[in-house]
Amino acid sequence: MSHDSLIPREIPFRTLERGGAVLAVALLLIVLGVAAVFLTGEPARLWSGLLFNWLFWSALAMGMVVFAVALHITDASWAWSLRRFALAGAAFLPVSFVLMPIITYFGREHLFHHWLHAEGDPVIDAKRAWLNLPGLMARDLIAVGILYALALAFVYFSLRPDLRDAGGQSHRSLYGAFTGGWRGAAGEARHSKRMLNRLAPLLALLYAVVFGIVAIDLAMSLAPHWFSTMFPVAYFVTGFHGALAAVAIAATLLRRPLGIEEFIAPRQYHDLGKLVFAFSVFWMYLNWSQYIVIWYGQLPFEQEYFARRLGEPFGAVASAVVLLVFLLPFFGLLTRPPKKVPGVLAFFSVLILVGHWLERYLLVVPSLYEGAGHGVAGGAAHAALPLGLPEIGLGLGFLGVFVALYLWFLRTFPVLPSAAMVASEPDPLAALPATSPRPAAHRL
User: Fold this and answer.
1) Would residue 8 count as lying in a domain?
2) Which residue in 259, 4, 217, 5 sits closest to 111, CA to CA?
3) For residue 426, cis peptide bond before it (omega within 30 degrees of 0)
């Protein structure tokens, strides 16, 4: 990564003052998602659609926070102006936490029927200590709750030093709640840096462990006879890769409305583009490693997982995933110039996110799909692909919720951190712009 981008001593206070049209579109998407819930005539498709969309959007939101964590751990000065674009993904975490028990409990008969009532199956009976609904729900709820709480604590300490006496009247009460027991600008910067230094490594490790457990419980267990040690790793790495792509899209779309083009220059895009490119290659490496070992092992109960996804009716989707996540970004971002062009990087990032969304679809739906009618055994090879209004409508609804919450974060909190928060060693003078020199008058 290049490190020639100097952090300016004075950083303007910026919140997103525009975006009403985008918010209206987001609300429309939410309405479409709600309509998809009520118009879907097949409960099995409804619950499988809710589950794989939850898996995609939750991993994306948490992956964005972990990207901000990674930038903090590595003291990545090149991306100081991108940190809050990653941090804003945390706005979706409360919604994710509320939806998880709803989906797993009320959709249990459709999602976990392969092992929920299986009797006399030696493979499933051997896994009963792990595969039982009360244990699964309690385990996931506690683990995800702890992870999300620490993620929100990371957000709190990242924002707190920049909110004292900042902003207008509309956010004064919220900022006051964030800055209770104020220690002074320099003291707050030092304290927040210490807390972030403690939280960041813990969050990075817990992200891998917790979302690995989530992948096993809510995706791999849908095919209870199948297992893969690479599966949890591929899941949380995909979430991080999607986060990189989402940050590239957000920075491209919002840097001009925010008036921060000078702080997100081609060199930032170049480094971010290298990460997007590298993780496309790494994603392919992980999935190929999982595939090739299972395939040459010639164990039927392991090969069935890939046979269902590479055959009809899901084969075209699997090919599209490889094309969107790996092949097109690989050749499109292979050289240096495309990475420096915001529109080009954003375009390939959109392809990557669509590919990852389809990948989450493949994690869930083929394990549950049994042919026409989504519950009738037999005839799966000739059935139509179960990808239509229920799945796409729910995806658009989740997109609307995510975008609305993301915009709320950027409209509420400063998009650019203060100089004190991005400096390697907090400087008392650099912390001052968080108060008087960064008033609401500096907003767009």
Assistant:
1) no
2) 217
3) no
